[in-house]
Amino acid sequence: MIICYTLGVLNSPIVRSKILLTAGSDSGQVNLADLNSDEDQASKKIRLCIEEVQGRSCLTDFHGMQLTRDKICSLIKKWQTLIEAQVDVKTTDGYVVRMFCMAFTARQREQVKANCYAQTAQIRKIRRKMTEIMTQEASKCQLRELVKKLIPEVIGKEIEKQCKGIFPLKDCMIRKVKIMKKPKFDITKLMELHGDGGDDVGVEMMRPEADDAMNTLTADVTAAADDD
To answer: Backbone phi, then psi, for 124, in 5-degree steps?
Structure first.
């Protein structure tokens, strides 16, 4: 078993979590609710990449985020328009991030008709506004600060606010984030991110030994005892 420590960019207190990664992989996914002990955040999955190995422990860094399939399917309904946009942004600390945004048109107050479809010109304006806001929010901060904006959907709420004059929107979210390019690895910055303190939380997941291996080990121990 490899113990992977995550830190900081996902929660304000310094918390270390143990995650079991797939064999042969240098990255893995974990639900945000498990990291922050908050079931309200269960709709997001965080991808973590191993940056440094210390014995049987691995120090990880943020490598992406996406909404769960159940969450996306629950938002898609008829009588509304789905609007999506994506943009590549470079943060102040050198990460190139590709962000995918989605939003849905909403019915206006006292609206009689059942549908709330947006016109093509309105969709183009909203998509342009999405890319502008995502670029503004991500290009002025470090990756750690950007992740803190993604968790409470700060960017999505700002898009809804500024697009209200074009067409009312609802459920505007950053559905996916991918790390396209990273700066040169710096062990000092990684150690500053993880720190020396923190509470070691989680449960160790031990892989049980196969029956054949247990029987062989028992036979070897018995034979050694008989020889003595």
So the answer is: -65, -40
